[in-house]
Amino acid sequence: MGRICFQTSRIQFLDEQLLRSCYMTGLEGIAWERELIVSGNRLMIDRQTHESGHFFFPWRTENGLDFMLGTTSLRETKDEYHLEVELARGTLHRLRSYLAERSNQFELSRTYTEKLTEAHERLIEAVFSWRTDFQQAGRSAANAIELCLDVINGLLVEDAGHLMEARHQAGMSNSMFGVKLGRLPDDQEDREVLAQTFDSVMLPFNWKDLSPDEGKFQFFDVDQMLQWSHRHGKKVFAGPLIELTDAGLPQWIYLWQNDFAKVQNYVIQYVQEVVRRYKGRVHAWHASCGLNSASVLGFSEEQTVRLAVDVVETIRHLDNSTPVIVSFDFPWGDYAANRRSDLSPLQFADALVRAELGINGIGIDLSFGAAANECTPRDFLELSRMLRQWSSLQLPLVVGVSLPTAFEQEEGELPAEGFWDITSALNLLRVLRSKPSVQALFWNQLTDGTAQRSGGVLALDRRPKEMLYRLQALSGKIHPA
User: Fold this and answer.
1) What does the alpha-carbon distance between residue 53 and residue 26 come to, in Å, rounded to a whole number?
2) Which of 117, 120, 298, 469 has a C-alpha 20 to 30 A away from that of 373?
3) Distance of alpha carbon 14 from alpha carbon 307, whole angstroms
């Protein structure tokens, strides 16, 4: 068993959930199963290998948000590393690599150059002082990280504008911009605001809600939302049809959780019911989401892949013309640090694409947050790298975003800890939507209160929030007028 050991003053920020989110990867980027040990100001990582690897740690920024940051490749050694120093080194290395690629197109502004220079100086201070002044080294490294993140997130938003301008000059249209529907506002004017903001909708087909009793279905709510979508000329993405989660599975299916063949049969029957009813009435089938990380029924990875194939094949048997997408959550595959997984999310997707089932697009579900079923946010540079990696599948990407946004607040008031302010959320969407491989972008929470957080474009009373009005700017040009 190999061990990597860090000294750090960040232990105070690590609750049980954040500690579980720490992980290491090898050169191939797949998370290793590992054991974490905390002792005083030391964090130790044990894994079943002696290979060098990158360590990823949820860094709490000055504004109270957690971002997953990584080190450069670290070799196993008897000496201890300084966590803050190594995270600063890794973050600065990523930024420098991006700037090297970018320098052929754009010149770095003086403001960013000064911040980059200062980040270098703070890192040098940290490297030379940590053996003699551990706390000061941590402060200097933290300053370097904050400076790098400031440059990364500002620069990537600017570059998103460049990408969108290039797209418009080439005569290309914006990617679709939609919302995952739910219960619509009662007021007709509020419904119109919703209709004016988005050109597409994700029509939910929650198996648990649609079939509370075995063999019986109730589609009234879906039909109402579909009628509203058609009336307003929206592109309709139907699904996901299958999600192997407690929120997505009917209670009666658990009677068969040890019988894969029986569950498989019920999945196929349900998909057949939906496709036969709505064929020709939707613009795309969202076949499944998150099967790569699913563990609630205890199926093997091979069985889960088989279910993903079954869903697509069932759709294609009944409808061979409507586009089909398959979505994946936790696209970095960090869940593999806490349980055995032989396939990374990208490998899972690649296996389905190579099978030539008739998949027309790949979905990436970015549910950011601190809950066990959410992933720690990444900075805009890492998001861009991840999307470029997934675009290697050579299929259009459909990205769904969900994150905890701040409650409505007074002007100048800071958002609650752990919640994104509106400006940061909009910048995230700008960066994602600017990528050429992203064909559609969806906001995945309609109303506040879902998953016990404030992340919707409608308040609990289903009235529009300021967030909805600000999102209208993204329905046309990438920057607000």
Assistant:
1) 5
2) 469
3) 36
